[in-house]
Amino acid sequence: MKETIIKVTVSDVRFPTSLEQHGSDAMHNDPDYSVAYVVIETDRGSRGYGLTFTLGKGTEIVVCAVEALSALVVGKALGDIVGDFRSFYRLLTSDGQMRWIGPEKGVIHLATAAVLNAVWDLWAKAEGKPLWKLLVDMDPKQLVSCIDFRYITDALTEEEALDILLKAQEGRQAREEQMLSEGYPAYTTSCAWIGYTDPQLKQLCTKALNCKWTRFKVKVGADLQDDIRRCRLIRETIGPDNTLMIDANQRWDVAEAIGWVMRLAEFKPLWIEEPTSPDDILGHATISKALAPLGIGVATGEQCHNRVMFKQLLQASALQFVQIDSCRLGSVNENLAVLLMACKFQVPVCPHAGGVGLCELVQHLILFDYISVSASLHNRMCEYVDHLHEHFKSPVLIRDACYMPPKDPGYSTEMKEESVRKYHYPQGEVWQGLRNQ
Question: Could you tell me if 42 and 90 are in contact, meaning their C-beta atoms sit under 8 angstroms apart?
């Protein structure tokens, strides 16, 4: 892998999902699912593709951050990067000047994720493997060497991480074969966006049931009586034995969250997701303790800034379900740290994937988690949103409500060129057409 990166380009690609209320929730009522889309090119003509997810406005700021980081990437040899990935990760996250606008959080970290996602895609393609398989086949010591353990050794040391990976070697081949034949269990969020009408909710849930879906998530938090009505409708539609989750998208204060969820407890939700500010670790701990007697867990992580905050959430017993995000954290490197910490603390990982491209990416991470880390499917499932997959060259494959492992080399991040052109903001033909209406 002596090829050298010679160019990094980034595009602002936005899809007008707000027109039909796709993705709407109590805090984000008009999202336009979007990406800062990165393409890395090498002197041998290879390309790696990466992205980070946004909701429309502000994507241009992430694009600027990617452009600022690109100077740290151009000129680097792929072999040198993957030979000491921890150092390359620190190069991007610990630049003496740019880290000031993070560090490891916010816009600069979203940009870092997009760049690193492209590097991992490039590496997996160079090895001729889908990313999950690259990770599964990697020597545990090399895997550990990709992780920056700075700030988390009080929760997980490098030696403990290596021990977890070595112990999971037993039965690994059988689990890989199981995934290839059965797939990884998923749940759907596509049936119950907050902007959908009651007839839409019932029609979509019924359709999902007919397609063998058994796990459903509904958005809540804008109006209590509306939530009670919608949760009752969905519970009656899906029946008592299927799984229901609720998601408030950070809408409430701590006491408000506890009181509101208690009013929804009759519908037997498995978890309440993002009940309060994603930064409020002790608030999540208070909510978790209050809801435990009801059998309702707390799930969070899609807007958890970094591995350090996940460390604290786990140490404080503030969540019962870890929701990693493939674009919020610093790509695969940082997600590996969180997967291993979650395993040590025995908290199941149920990734966030509500957004354009997130299903394509995070399926690789959760497959790796089951095969090479947790070795468990208990209380584990991966979110699925049935939007915008047609814009990817290797879209996710769902069979019987399960993610089937990708087979194409890479990180499943490459978008179709015509989609990038059509939805490029602001000059793409879709956006020009909307402005002319």
Answer: no
Please say if 268 is a catalytic residue: no
Task: Determine the Cα–Cα distance for residues 153 and 4; give it in Å rounded to an integer.
Answer: 33
DSSP code of residue 370 = I
pTM above 0.70, yes or no: yes
243-247 and 215-219 as β-strands: parallel, antiparallel, unpaired?
Answer: parallel
Write phi, then psi, for 91 (nearest 5 degrees).
-60, -45
- Both tokens of 358, joined, read 């997130």
Q: Tens of pLDDT along 146-157?
A: 999 999 999 999
Active site residue 219: yes
- Distance from C-alpha of 293 to C-alpha of 281, rounded to nearest angstrom: 20
Catalytic residue among 22, 217, 219, 284: 219
As a whole number of Å, the end-to-end CA separation of the chain is 50
415 DSSP assignment:
B
pLDDT at residue 1, as a whole number: 59
Q: Is the pLDDT of residue 363 over 70?
A: yes
Flag whether pLDDT at 437 surpasses 80: no
Catalytic residue among 217, 284, 352, 387: 352
**CA 347 to CA 321: how far, in whole Å?**
6
